[in-house]
């Protein structure tokens, strides 16, 4: 049961957005830019970073939803996503993405855990400064989203098909479509 009185039937961050629509828009705008805006990282790769950080933070709703969003946009789908979350991904993703995921994981533990050797490793695999920047920003934003969702005790469906259905809307319409009143 949520710690505050949220609208019935809306899980995770969706219930929080319905509760405070005035905060929903800037949060969805941020997600739209980070996960769907112009980038040399694919949308699937950026969603995978979000899912990975959410998994590291034990945020079930965010992990399940962004895992489905990533799977819908990555070759290999859920198998790749699950491999990455289990840290068995050496073959599942590129060395560059693996290095960026390492940085994202360090951000999840605390920003000061990112060291020059992490950044250099990503550069050695071909990551640009913009990709490193965006990885850190996605990871930091998802630390906030995870703490928002879990800090207010929201509920999350356990059926993956619910998240796969949400993925179809996000992939085709984006995050603005989940803003109340749009």
Model description:
This protein has 182 residues and is an all-alpha fold. It has one domain: Up-down Bundle (AhpD-like), CATH 1.20.1290.10. It is built from nine helices and no strands. The chain is globular and about 50 Å long. The mean pLDDT is 95.
Question: What would the keywords be for this entry?
Answer:
182 residues, mainly alpha, AhpD-like, 9 helices, 0% strand
Whole-Å distance between the termini? 27 Å
Number of domains: 1
Tell me the structural class.
Answer: mainly alpha
Question: If you average the pLDDT, what whole number results?
Answer: 95
Strand content: under 5%
Following the backbone from N to C, one meets helices and strands in this order, namely HHHHHHHHH
DSSP summary, beta strand count: 0
The biggest beta sheet reads:
none
Overall geometry comes to globular
